[in-house]
Amino acid sequence: MLKIELYGEIRCDHRGGMAMREIEHKYNVSWRTVRKAADSVWPEQRKKLRCGRPRWIPTSR
Can you say how many angstroms the Cα of residue 39 is from the centroid of all Cα atoms in its chain? Predict the structure, then answer.
């Protein structure tokens, strides 16, 4: 299921009066996801990854 579809179904169930705990168990998501879906119309944009060398790789000197 796409994230947009999931958010739509969560919103529909929430508007229908289903408890947040029931929605969590029905879709197997966290309470934060249910809250985000109930409060917004669209899922938040993905964060862009930084380009460049990761910090954990030591430099050779």
Answer: 12
